[in-house]
Write a structure and sequence with these properties.
alpha/beta, 15% strand, globular
Amino acid sequence: MEISQAREHLSLHKRIVVKIGTTTLTYPNGTLNLQRIERICWVVADLCNQNKEIIIVTSGAVGVGANSLGMEQRPKDIIGRQAASAVGQAMLMNIYHRFLMAYNRHAAQILLTRECVGSPGRKENAHNTICQLLAMGVVPIVNANDTIATDELGELSDNDNLSAHVAIFSESQLLVILSDIEGFYNKDPRTNPKAVLFSEVTEITPKIEAAAGGSGSSLGTGGMATKLTAARTALEHGISTVIASGDDPMILLRILAGGQEGTLFRAGG
């Protein structure tokens, strides 16, 4: 399949997981970027109006909570992060709810733990709940349950890997990871002006793995390495992934219209 055909094929996907990173939701000082969140909700509502089924996996609870509590930086201890998450998650859901309701869409909160991802029974329950919500026209908003499960502050706290698992057990056709970078580069574009953006990746080779670096922001926890792991997990289950910048939420419409945006990790060879 040619690159343009692979991109055009994305328009046929109905069920899509959209992972939204902390840096997409906030300003550099850690406060919520309300204009961008509202545009995200407008785009999601518009896609739902096109009979798409959108599942949001959101980061940001710890960072937003820490900022709201007046912390100078993201807490490093588990208890501090749990407290910040409890405050931030409530704030995030309230904002998503208000903005989506403005466009006649309900939001539903789903908090997952590693057991929900690893246990067949709990995974089936999560699958059934998400499918029922989508059938009702509701937008599921998923996050790791950082408040009570300390392991989620480790393995799943970046939400990149979580979004891949959500895409798998929800039987989605596409995963879109919105970040603070335009896509997957052969080198770090923040430090190397000669870095080249990959438009499409069909196989995650050792060379591709070597190009993945660490976290680029003090606000979030997921770097390109975690996004690459998420893409690999999704590919192993036949799900394509697009990594793209979340600066302009309209990019979702362009991606699903076949636009050459970000990096497409294409399933199916």
